[in-house]
Fold this protein.
Amino acid sequence: MPTPFEVQRHPTETRLAVRGSLDINTAPSLAEEIDAIIATRPPKVIVDLSGLDLIDSSGVAALVKLYKGVRGANGTVAITGARDQPLAIFKLLRMDKVFNL
Amino acid sequence: MRAIVGNTMVPTIRLTVPGTLRYRAIAVRVVGEACRLVSSSTQRDPDDPVVHDVRDPFDTAVISAFMEIFNNIAIHAYKRTGGGVIDLAITPTERELVIEVRDHGHPFDLDDVTPLPNELDEDSLPEGGMGIHIAKTMLDEMTYEPGPPNLWRLRKRLSANQAAGARRS
């Protein structure tokens, strides 16, 4: 069951929109895309979670990997649109401040 | 065991699924419906009763915790290979939900779980080990008894405000 996600690459930024459920079953397919994004060393990545309904620790780990990978190459990451259960998880893990949610 | 939801006596809901991640969605769906019996939450779209609709705080807490425990069993107890089942006993009452999760896999050592750092920054963002922390923090009570069968007992109570709201609905 693939995660519904969409990547748009522009010269100045990369946009990743994630929808539905990002969990232990769907995160691996997104992780491959994340590896590909990191490999391009994008200056700016915008992660749109407005369509994300559910996340578990595996999904969080995938997003952390993206964040660290892009930041490690001196890029910036903006995570936007988190709501409901995903936002509750980020707050519980105290990642909301790091991600500026 | 029977419990009272509203004015109705409901038995404990029992479900047995293979202990692989393939069956997680089924189990989560059942747990989600059990949550609604307690919280009286409604689905966003009644014509599309998908499980991916978690807005109610009670439902959010229970489902988030349960997903992590199911993951833990499939990965650590059954080593991602299946070979066993997961037995669920879900008891909804007017004010709380109790879920007992049994497996016959390898016991899990809760003491091996590394706590999350107190202060998070970019460098200390964890890439793993968050599941048990999520489950424990989301619930009012979480216990684990190594088996066989191994037994996770999860308990979540409605807050006073939620209980009042549930009674009105």
